[in-house]
Design brief:
340 residues, alpha/beta
Length: 340
């Protein structure tokens, strides 16, 4: 096992360079959601290829994020990166209410991220005075009772943990044949059940651990959808997520991500364009109306520099971004209606 104190001492001797600091496009801007200030951080992937094993295996064709940063990290490098992130965001850490942790793959896969690194991140998170939630990205295969239990113990009582599962689409053909996510429904249900099991144990014991819940990612207008089916697919995926959460008595968050053409998705789906702003607005509003107060909805617009066809900075796009920010903060659709 990795000794955190020993590795932290080693970090002092590391020369910070581009291999340790995130690429500027991977530095997420602090934004807001309904819990307050939201900050996402990106750690390196420690798998042998330096990328998500699913992406390395020619799966997950909808984005480039799983391809990693071009080199393999090790635990010492990740500790160095985390220290750099602590310093880089030093002025805002006291205000962070929602921390999101990524690593270009699955943070719960010990091959991709040494568990002790995650422990170090969560122990730091415990010191943040305004923190309410920590969300962590993972594939469903690595969401086990043991992994979730460790998260809840490391974060401690008084905060919540959300495990993010990238369902993307409830349409099995889209998810597994087109996007090649290789995520059968039974595997998704197994992951959700693992979260639920730990939540019941924590709640029944009244232990000093964080309560876990579920977050799902939904692509709006991704490959396999048409102009006529974009809204329906987003709503059906969100309602499938809600059905799962309710069946296992879990709180649910929804992350909606408008599709953008990446290098990988453009090569795989050259004829599929990004959805129109109008379609995205309609989908977001329809999802919000469908789930009501049962799940907070967050619309993510960050692309980590992978968008091969970025939107023009037109007044319409600027107004859309303002409407998204307002919606993420309040859940209200007023500014979206003005765009229609």
């Amino acid at each position: 096992m990795l000794s955190i104190l020993t590795e932290e001492e080693k970090v002092r001797d590391i020369q910070f360079d581009d291999s340790l600091q995130p690429h500027p496009k991977s530095l997420f801007r602090p934004v807001h959601d309904r819990r307050g200030l939201r900050l996402a951080i990106v750690l390196g992937n420690e798998a042998p290829s330096g990328m998500c094993p699913y992406a390395a295996g020619n799966n997950c064709h909808h984005c480039d994020i799983g391809l990693g940063e071009g080199h393999r990290f090790d635990p010492t490098m990740n500790l160095a990166r985390f220290r750099w992130l602590q310093e880089h965001y030093s002025s805002i850490w006291p205000s962070v209410a929602h921390l999101v942790v990524y690593n270009s793959g699955s943070v719960l896969n010990r091959i991709e991220l040494e568990p002790e690194i995650l422990t170090a991140v969560l122990h730091f998170a415990r010191s943040l005075p305004e923190l309410r939630v920590v969300s962590l990205e993972s594939r469903e295969a690595f969401v086990t009772p043991e992994a979730v239990s460790r998260l809840t113990a490391d974060l401690g009582a008084g905060r919540a943990v959300r495990v993010i599962v990238g369902i993307e689409s409830a349409d099995d053909t889209i998810r597994n044949k087109l996007l090649r996510k290789q995520m059968p429904r039974r595997a998704i249900a197994r992951a959700v059940r693992a979260i639920s099991t730990v939540r019941r144990v924590v709640a029944s014991k009244g232990s000093k651990a964080a309560l876990p819940g579920l977050t799902t990612n939904v692509i709006v207008g991704g490959p396999g959808t048409t102009t006529r089916s974009i809204v329906r697919d987003a709503v059906e995926t969100s309602m499938y997520s809600l059905m799962l959460a309710q069946a296992y008595d879990l709180p649910l968050d929804l992350n909606l991500h408008p599709y953008y053409p990446s290098q990988r998705s453009t090569a795989r789906f050259p004829g599929h364009a990004r959805p129109s702003l109008q379609a995205v607005v309609d989908a977001v509003c329809a999802v919000a109306q469908s789930v009501g107060s049962d799940a907070p909805v967050f619309v993510g617009l960050e692309d980590e520099g992978h968008d091969q066809d970025p939107w023009d900075k037109t007044e319409q796009v600027t107004r859309f971004a303002r409407a998204v920010d307002y919606f993420n903060r309040t859940g209200r659709q007023d500014l979206f209606r003005d765009l229609r």
